[in-house]
UniProtKB/TrEMBL annotation, chain B:
Matching Pfam families: Aconitase_C (PF00694)
Pathway per the UniProt entry: Amino-acid biosynthesis; L-leucine biosynthesis; L-leucine from 3-methyl-2-oxobutanoate: step 2/4
Lineage: Bacteria, Pseudomonadati, Pseudomonadota, Alphaproteobacteria, Parvularculales
SUPFAM superfamilies: LeuD/IlvD-like (SSF52016)
Name of the protein: 3-isopropylmalate dehydratase small subunit
Function, as annotated: Catalyzes the isomerization between 2-isopropylmalate and 3-isopropylmalate, via the formation of 2-isopropylmaleate.
Enzyme class, first EC level, given as a word: lyase
PANTHER family noted in UniProt: 3-ISOPROPYLMALATE DEHYDRATASE SMALL SUBUNIT (PTHR43345:SF5), 3-ISOPROPYLMALATE DEHYDRATASE SMALL SUBUNIT 2-RELATED-RELATED (PTHR43345)
Taxonomic source organism: Hyphococcus luteus
Record family assignment: Belongs to the LeuD family. LeuD type 1 subfamily.
This protein's record includes keyword Magnesium: no
CDD domains tied to this protein: IPMI_Swivel
Length: 469, 221
C-alpha cells in the first residue's frame, strides 16, 4: 500500500486476532460497556453456559430507563424498566463486572461516564450496546455501537467480528466564529453531506479547529457520527487528551501511564496516509445551526429560511422534505429564528457535560425563561452534576426556571428514559442528537441545537441565539 | 432463539415506500420494554400501524390484505438508520418477516440482522422500485423469491437481481450457526493474542491475569 497509516489503521492492526480475508477480522476488544437495555445478555450467556472471558474489562451502568427525577429508585414510569435495572444489577453482581449503579458517584449516561472515569482510553477498541458509542472516538479510540448478540459475543470471546470500514477525513479549517460550538460544526457537516453521507465510513475529524477543541467538545462531534450513518468517528489523541485523562479513576498510573503515553503518541495518522474520501469545511463562515425537520440533515443556519422541497434534487428527497415540513408544522421560506417554542431540553450524551452546562449557564445567568416554557436540564453524569453544583451552576439553572434533574438519558428519547416525555405536539429546542418523529414524545417537534442556543431560546420563548453568538 | 437455516423463500412482499425509516419508527421506544429476545412483533411500526386511539390505521400497508402475511419487506433507501437497538431486527422477525430488500441500510442494523439470521438484501433503488411496482400491480398476489444459495432475488414477473452478502455470514445463515460458536473455533488464536497483548499493552489491562482454555468454561471465573 502506498503512503502511511491512518489512526484507524494503527489501532486496527494492533487488535487483529485473526484475519478472515475479504476484509473481515476477528478483533480484540479492550472494553465492553453495558446498560440496562442489554440486561438480557447475562441470562442468554448463562443459559448457554458461557462465562464472561474478562469480567475486569466489562462495565455496566444504568442510564436509559431509569427516572431522572430526584429521589428516584428502581421503579420507573414505564412498567418494565425496573425489570431491566434489576436484571442488570443481578447479572453484574453474579459475574463480578464493574457496575455503576443508581446513586453511585460514577453513574451516568454511558458515553459521558466512560471518558469521565477513563474507562475509555486512546488506542483502545471500545464497544457498547448503543449507537452513540461513537462518542468515545473523541479520545482517539475505535469505538462503535453494537447489538445485544454482539455484546454477548464480546463478553464470551473477548473479540468481535468486523469488516474494516473505509476511511473519511473531515478537515475543519478557518477560524471558528465567536459563540460557535462543536454542536454547530457537526450539525453543519450533516447538512452538507447528508444523513447518509458517512455510510460505512470511519470518519476522522481533523484540522486546526478540531485541535483547538477541548475533549468534551470532541466527544460531542464524534457522538453525532452516527447521524451521518458512519460506523464510527475518531479524533487523534494529543496533549489535550492526555491532560484530560491523567489521574482519572481507571486511567493507567505511574509506569503504566508512561508506557501508554508513548504508545498513544505513535497513533496519529501519518502525513502520507491516504483516505477514501476527504472533505474540507471552512468554519469561518458558519452561524449557529438549528434543525427544521425530522432528520439531522434538515439543518440550517440560524439566520436562514426553511428550504423549499420543490428545490430538492430528487423526487424522493422532495417527498421526505414535504413530510418533514408537515410533521414540523412549518412552511417553506419561513424563518427558523423567532419560532415560538413550548419546551427546552439540555441533556443527552451529545451535550450534557460540564462545558455544556457552563456554556448554557453563561446565557442563563441573571435571566428567566419565558412564561409557559417547560425547561429541563439533566446533567450527563452524577459527577458532572456534582461538579456543576459545586460551581453554583444548578442555582443559575433553577433561578432561571429550569428543572434540574438527576443524570440519565432523560428526555432524549421518550419511552426510553422511564417514560419521560414532552407533552403531545410540543415544539422543543433540544441539545440532543435526534429529531426523529415522536422521538421526544407523541407528535413532539424537536429542533436540535447547541446548549447555548437551547438556553437562549428558553429565555426568549422562541428560537433564538445568545447575544455573543 | 433457535436458528433456522435460510436457503430460499418465495413469499408475499410488502412495499413500504418510505425513505430513511429509522429504528424509532420500526419499534418505538415505548414498545421495547421486555427483558427477553422474543415477542416484539406487536410493537413493529407501532406508530404507523395504530392511530393515537389504538385503532388500526387502515391505510398502512401492513394492515391491508394480503400484505399482513408478508414475509419480505421492500424498503427505501437507508432503511433502519438510527439506533443500535437490535430489537429492530427482532421486531421484524417476530412479526414474521425473514428478509428486507432495500437499496441501503443503517449499518448497525445491517450487521445485527446478519448475526440474527435475518437477511438484509441490498439491490439498486430502481430495482427495488420495479419489484414494488410489480407487486402492487398484482395487488400483492405476486410473490417474490429470495435465494441465498444463488444470491438472487426474483420478482413476481420473473426478473432476476443479484445481491451480495459477506461470505462468513452467508455460510452461518445457510448452516444456522450461532456466532459465538463460530468464533470459538479460533479459541487458540484468542488465547495467544490476549496473553501476548497483556505483556505488550499492559496499560490497557487491569493486572497481570492470563487466560487459558478454562477461561471459556463455566466454573472458571
Ligand atoms: S442520551 Fe439519548 S442518544 Fe444518548 S445514549 Fe441516551 S438515549 Fe441514546
Amino acid at each position: 500500500m502506498m503512503g502511511g497509516e491512518t489512526l484507524l489503521d494503527k489501532i486496527w492492526r494492533d487488535h487483529v486476532i485473526r484475519d478472515f480475508g475479504d476484509n473481515t477480522y476477528l478483533l480484540h476488544v479492550d472494553r465492553a460497556f453495558l446498560h440496562e437495555l442489554a440486561a438480557v445478555a447475562f441470562e442468554s450467556l448463562k443459559n448457554a453456559r458461557r462465562p464472561i472471558l474478562s469480567p475486569e474489562l466489562t462495565f455496566a451502568t444504568v442510564d436509559h430507563l431509569l427516572d431522572t427525577t430526584p429521589g428516584r429508585g428502581d421503579d420507573t414510569i414505564i412498567p418494565n424498566g425496573k425489570d431491566f435495572i434489576q436484571k442488570l444489577r443481578a447479572g453484574a453482581r453474579e459475574t463480578g463486572i464493574s457496575f455503576f449503579d443508581i446513586d453511585t458517584a460514577e453513574q451516568g449516561i454511558v458515553h459521558v461516564i466512560a471518558p469521565e472515569q477513563a474507562v475509555a482510553l486512546p488506542g483502545t477498541v471500545f464497544v457498547c450496546c448503543d449507537s452513540h458509542t461513537s462518542t468515545i472516538g473523541g479520545l482517539g479510540a475505535l469505538a462503535w455501537g453494537i447489538g445485544t448478540t454482539d455484546i454477548e459475543h464480546v463478553m464470551a470471546t473477548g473479540g468481535i467480528v468486523q469488516t474494516k470500514p473505509q476511511t473519511m477525513r473531515v478537515n475543519f479549517t478557518g477560524a471558528l466564529p465567536r459563540g460557535l460550538t462543536a454542536k454547530d460544526l457537526i450539525l453543519h457537516l450533516i447538512g452538507e453531506i447528508s444523513a447518509d453521507g458517512g455510510n460505512g465510513y470511519a470518519i476522522e475529524y481533523a484540522g486546526p479547529v478540531i485541535e483547538q477543541l477541548g475533549v468534551e467538545e470532541r466527544l460531542s462531534i464524534c457522538n453525532m457520527s452516527i447521524e451521518l450513518s458512519a460506523r464510527l468517528g475518531l479524533i487523534a489523541p494529543d496533549d489535550v487528551t492526555y491532560e484530560y485523562l491523567a489521574g482519572r479513576p481507571y486511567a493507567p498510573k505511574g509506569a503504566q501511564w508512561d508506557m501508554a503515553l508513548s504508545y498513544w503518541r505513535s497513533l496519529p495518522s501519518d502525513p502520507s496516509a491516504q483516505y477514501d474520501r476527504v472533505i474540507d469545511i471552512d468554519c469561518s463562515v458558519l452561524t449557529p445551526q438549528v434543525t427544521w425537520g425530522t432528520s439531522p440533515e434538515h439543518v440550517i443556519g440560524f439566520h436562514d429560511h426553511v428550504p423549499d422541497p420543490s428545490q430538492a434534487e430528487t423526487k424522493r428527497e422532495q417527498a421526505s422534505m414535504s413530510r418533514a415540513l408537515d410533521y414540523m408544522e412549518l412552511k417553506p421560506g419561513m424563518r427558523i429564528a423567532g419560532l415560538p417554542i413550548n419546551a427546552a431540553f439540555i441533556g443527552s450524551c451529545t451535550n450534557s457535560r460540564l462545558s455544556d452546562l457552563r456554556a448554557a449557564a453563561k446565557v442563563l445567568e441573571g435571566r428567566k425563561i419565558a412564561e409557559g416554557v417547560m425547561a429541563i436540564c439533566s446533567p450527563g453524569s452524577a459527577q458532572t452534576k456534582r461538579l456543576a453544583e459545586a460551581e453554583g451552576i444548578d442555582r443559575i439553572f433553577k433561578d432561571a426556571g429550569f428543572e434540574w434533574r438527576e443524570s440519565g438519558c432523560s428526555l432524549c428519547m421518550s419511552g426510553g428514559a422511564g417514560g419521560e416525555r414532552f407533552p403531545d405536539h410540543a415544539r422543543v429546542v433540544s441539545s440532543t442528537n435526534r429529531n426523529f418523529e415522536h422521538r421526544q414524545g407523541r407528535n413532539v417537534k424537536s429542533h436540535l441545537a447547541s446548549p447555548e442556543t437551547v438556553a437562549a431560546s428558553a429565555v426568549a420563548g422562541r428560537i433564538a441565539i445568545a447575544e455573543h453568538q | 432463539m433457535e436458528r433456522k437455516p435460510f436457503r430460499k423463500l418465495t413469499e408475499i412482499a410488502a412495499p413500504l415506500r418510505r425513505l430513511n425509516v429509522d429504528t424509532d419508527a420500526i419499534i418505538p421506544g415505548a414498545q421495547l420494554l421486555k427483558v427477553t429476545k422474543g415477542g416484539f412483533g406487536q410493537g413493529l411500526f407501532y406508530n404507523w400501524r395504530y392511530k393515537e386511539n389504538g385503532e388500526e390505521e387502515p391505510d398502512f400497508i401492513l394492515n391491508k390484505a394480503p400484505y399482513q402475511h408478508a414475509k419480505i419487506l421492500l424498503a427505501g433507501h437507508n432503511f433502519a438508520c438510527g439506533s443500535s437497538r437490535e430489537v429492530a431486527v427482532w421486531a421484524l422477525r417476530d412479526y414474521g418477516f425473514r428478509c428486507v430488500i432495500a437499496p441501503s441500510f443503517g449499518n448497525i442494523f445491517y450487521s445485527n440482522a446478519l448475526k440474527n439470521g435475518f437477511l438484509p438484501v441490498v439491490i439498486a433503488e430502481d430495482d427495488v422500485e420495479r419489484i414494488s411496482d410489480e407487486v402492487e400491480a398484482s395487488q400483492g398476489a405476486g410473490k417474490v423469491t429470495v435465494d441465498l444459495e444463488k444470491c438472487r432475488v426474483v420478482s413476481p414477473g420473473g426478473c432476476e437481481y443479484a445481491f451480495e452478502v459477506p461470505e462468513n455470514y452467508r455460510q452461518a445463515m445457510l448452516d444456522a450457526l450461532d456466532p459465538i460458536a463460530a468464533t470459538l473455533r479460533f479459541k487458540d488464536d484468542i488465547i495467544a493474542f490476549q496473553n501476548r497483548d497483556r505483556d505488550r499493552r499492559s496499560w490497557a489491562y487491569f493486572g497481570p491475569r492470563k487466560i487459558d482454555d478454562d477461561s471459556f468454561n463455566m466454573g472458571d471465573v
